[in-house]
Amino acid sequence: MSTLVFGHRNPDTDAICSAIAYADFLQKTHRPDAIAACCGTPNQRTEFVLKRAGVAPPRIVMDVRPELLSLCAQGPVTAKRGEVFYEVYQRMKGQDVRAIPVVDEDRKVVGILSLLQLMDLIFRDDADPLKTRTVRTSLGKVREILGGSFQHSIDPQQHDELMVMVGAMSAGGFTERMERFPAEKLMVVCGDRPTIQLPAVEHGVRAIIITGGYALSDGLVELSKSRGVSVLRSPYDTATTAMRIKSSHFIDSAIDEDFVTLSSKQPIDEARLKTERIQQAIFPVVNDLGQLVGAVSKSDLVNPPKPKLVLVDHNELSQAVNGAEDADILEVLDHHRIGGSLKSTQPIRFINEPVGSTCTLVARQYRAAGIDPPAGIALCMASGIISDTLYLRSPTTTQIDRDILVWLEQLCKVDLEQYAKEFFEIGSALRNCSPAEVVREDCKEFTEHGIRFSISQIEETGFDLFWDRKEELRKGLEELSSKQRLQFSALLVTDVVSNGSLLLLSKESDAWDEINYPCLDRGLYELPNIVSRKKQLLPLLAQILRSSTR
User: Fold this and answer.
1) What is the DSSP letter of 535?
2) Is 270 exposed, middle or buried (0-12, 13-18, 19+ CB in 10 A)?
3) What is the C-alpha separation between 367 and 377, in angstroms, rounded?
4) Domain that holds residue 24
5) CA torsion angle 21 22 25 26 (round to 10)
């Protein structure tokens, strides 16, 4: 199972670029199985970055709760109707399994066959001497199991219900006994004994099997042809031949056709709940077409392996990919406050520093290890820093960010000042996105003083488009807040030219009177020189919420 490197939900450029870069660093150092992932599609600016850098986008994974496909034994041992005990038993024995799915020609599951059900084919009628000798098979299957050869055959693939008679008694006793049964239902097994062979052929039995490697005489073969008797040679002695014939019984009557399948896309915890009260030896796992892709047992579902995650640009589970709470979180690399309910069962690498961008921290890992990142990865990290620090103009910017950006500029060989202008001019969310998409872009949830809320942030060059779409954005915030069951949702629209922002709220209370910034409209405030959600807006909202709960 791979180690997935994730940024936060509704990822911005820093989240995606830091995941890509850190996965590359981990691959080069101590986690060769690291893969960059994201729980949301990259926005237009991030797509611009990846295209310019020539770097593949991260794998989109919306939920890391392991699905059955990742757990089940793929390509399991199977059986088909029309197969016989011996070949299926050998297959199960070879793979050391006690139950297998039965499939049709299209790999669709038609039943379950357990070892107990298979053995019951041989032993279920032990109390009845006639039934215990009866075998549902075909002469072709008998020949395969014996490894023998036909001297003459009639309809060898025909399914027959045959009673096995062993010619190990006197000729008179054998003939008397044989004549009690319909000839077409008899399969006679004997060695080189013409006194048994002749009456069997004359009686017109379905087949006669000559054991010990012997053959029927030419004259009796010709008589067999005229009487419609198939003749089969067996290399084994009579006892072994009789035993092997019994193992040529078709499995069809032992197949359990009352069974439950599981979807390959089903989360393992859901599968565990579904199967806990079902008495079934094995559970076939099928794809959307109903075709078998694997199989699991109840024991497989008890303690499945957990997904392995590395979190970048966040450390709160409320901002992490779905299912992160049940995963093994191996590392955290972040520049935000420490919050939420993140826990680990073992010590983990946890790097959290007050810099302007997580990409700054990733780049420092490269420098400390003496590794120069490829030019494309260097440009990705530079883009994350440019995005999160508004090209070093945000109050979150540190000297470390400045130094790292100089180093990255040398590696990616790009004029970053010109590149930054292009970056901010491309991908205006207000120009290209629906209200719902705008308010979910770079959206993070927080809890302060028992109040859950979200803050989304977008960067624009000027506020003209905002004024045109203000009311539909307000409605988008209200719908987001209602759907996520939040107390309120906020949208911070930052102008990268003036270095100021507008704050739009889904709703407000009397406590907002303490915000001490100009109120331009219902739930709309002008925030001069406020550009950082992390360092400026979140502490301001926390202070207001603290006052409102006193």
Assistant:
1) I
2) middle
3) 13
4) 3-65+306-425
5) -150
pLDDT, tens digit, for every residue of 390-415?
999 998 999 999 999 999 999 999 99
Residues 452, 439 within the same domain? yes
In angstroms, the CA 172 to CA 189 distance is 16
304: exposed, middle or buried (Cβ count in 10 Å: 0-12, 13-18, 19+) = middle
Q: How would you list the strands of the sheet with 3-6, edge to edge?
A: 59-60, 34-38, 3-6, 308-312, 328-334, 349-352
Show the tokens assigned to 260: 């439950």
Give residue 169's pLDDT. 86
416: tokens are 């970053």
Please name every residue paired with 263 in a beta bridge, in sequence order, or none if there are none. Answer: 286
Amino acid letter, 531: V
Q: Quick check: is 281 in a domain?
A: yes
Q: Please give the share of the chain, as a percent, with pLDDT higher than 90.
A: 75
Query: 338-384 pLDDT, tens per residue?
Result: 877 788 888 999 999 999 999 999 999 999 999 999 999 999 999 99
CATH number of the domain that residue 226 is part of = 3.40.1390.20
Task: Let me know if residue 232 belongs to a domain.
Answer: yes
**Whole-number Å distance between alpha carbons of 328 and 530:** 37
Burial 111-141 (b: 16+ CB within 10 A, else e): bbbbbebbeebbeeeeeeeeebbbbbbbbbb
348 within domain boundaries: yes
pLDDT at 305: 84
Q: Tell me if residue 108 falls in helix, strand or coil.
A: strand
